[in-house]
Amino acid sequence: MLSDKSKKAIRDVYQNIRDSLPDFAVRRSQNILVAEMAKTLAGNFDKNRRLIIAEAGTGTGKSLAYLIAGIPLATEAKQTLVISTATIALQEQLLHKELPFFRRQSGLKFEFALVKGRQRYCCEQKLAMLAQADDQIELLADLATIPKKRDLQLIKRLFTAYAAGKWKGDIDSWPTQIPDDIWQLVVSDRHSCSKSFSAHRNCPFHKAREALDQCDVLIVNHALLLADLELGGGIILPKPEDCYYVLDEAHHLPRITRDFSAAHASVLGAKAWLQTMAVSMRQLTQSIASSEISDPVTKLLSSINSISKELTKIHSLISANDRQFSDDSWRFADGELPEALEELAANMNHETKRGLSQTAKIVDILAEQLKQDQLPQAKANKLIAEVGFYLQRIENLHQVWNMLIKETKGTPLAKWVEKSGTRQDDHIFAASLIDVD
After folding, report:
1. Which residues, including other chains, have CB under 8 Å from residue 227's CB and lie 6 or more apart?
2. Coil, helix or strand for 417?
3. Where do the DSSP E strands lie in 14-68?
4. In this structure, are residues 181 and 145 in contact, taking their beta carbons and an 8 Å threshold?
5. How far apart are CA 143 and CA 163, in angstroms?
6. What's the pLDDT band for 134 if we cut at 50, 70, 90?
7. pLDDT tens string 308-335
8. What CA–CA distance (Å, rounded) separates 275 from 305?
9. Environment class of residue 89 by beta-carbon count within 10 Å: exposed (0-12), middle (13-18) or buried (19+)?
10. How many whole angstroms separate alpha carbon 146 and alpha carbon 143?
11. Chain mean position to CA 166
C-alpha cells in the first residue's frame, strides 16, 4: 500500500517542481496520472500484478508524471527505475533535459544513465592491436579487409584519445562520424570481448556496465529491453525483480517486438559464406595443432557440407517451380510450407542446429585456451572474433529454419520467401511473429 511517507515524498517533489517553474499550470489529468501510477507501483490494486496502462494526450506532462511517481517510490524501495522508449529523440530529451531538471528541482538524490548496446562500444584490445600495428601488418592478415593507411590513422586517433581519457570508447561520443567498416574492426563483441578474459575487463563496454550498478534510473530502448528479457532478465539490465519499468511510447512495442522476433536468410548468400567459413575452419586447424580443436572442426565441416547440399536442393526446388515463385515475394498460407519443402526445411533445421553446436564448442575451446595462456592473446582475440562472427551467422540461419518448421497453436507464424534485391537468382526465406501478445 502507498504509505503516508511515500505520499508525502511525492507531494514534496511535486511542490518543489511547481515552485521552480513560474508558469507552472496545474493539470488535473497529470495529477490523476501521478496518483494512479504511484498506487499501482505501491501495490494498492494488486500486490502481485503491478501493471497500469495509461494513455494521455499531448501536453499532459506524461514524462514528468512518471518521474514524480516513479523515482521517489523506486529510491525508497531500493529498486531501479527502467524507462524504456522507442525513439532516440525521447531518450535524448530524458537524458539531457527532463532528468537533469528533475534532479535539480525535486530535492531527491539519484543517478541516471543511458544504457546502450554492446555494438556502440569499441574493444580496448582490438583498438590497441590495430593502433600499434605499424610494423606488424601480419597481425591484420586474418581480417577480411586489411585497413588502409587513412583508416589506421583514424584508429590511432581513437586510441590516443581513449588512452588519454578524452574519449570513453563509444561511437556516439566521438565528434565526427566513424565509418562503419572501420568501426567493425574495433567494435566489442560478446565472444572475443568477454569480461571473463582478464585483458578485457576494463574494455569500455564492461566499464559502462559496471557504472550502471550505481544508477537509480536507467534509460533504454525497447529493443534492448526485449534483448535482456530474451536472455532471461538481469543479463544486460538489473534483475527484473529489482526494477520498476516504465514503457514510454508503448504503442511502438508490438512492431518492435515483431521485428525483434523475426528472422531471415538467403539461399545462395548462405552457401557463399558457408564456403568461406569452411576455408576458415580448415585454416584454424592448421594454425592450432590440437586434437581438442580438430574434432569439433571435423564435425562442423561435415555439417557445413550437409547444409550446403540442402541449400542446393532448395535452390533447385525454387528454380523448378519458377511459376509458383515468380512474384517478388510469396507467402506460405496459414504458415504451412509446401509438401516438397517440408523435408528440406526439417533437414536444414537439424543440420544448422548441429553446426551451431560445434561452432559454439570451438569458441568455448578457444576462450578456455586463452584463459589458460595456451594461446598468444593477439592470436586468440582474432580467432575468437572470427569464429564468433560465423557463430552469429549460423545461429541466425538456424533460427530462420527452426521458425519455418515450427507449428504454432493459435495464430500461425508469418512465413514467406522473396527474391533477393542484391544477388541475382537468389531468394530469401523469412519468418515472423504475427501475434505478439
Report:
1. 117, 236, 260
2. strand
3. none
4. yes
5. 24
6. low
7. 999 999 999 988 886 666 677 788 888 8
8. 9
9. exposed
10. 6
11. 27
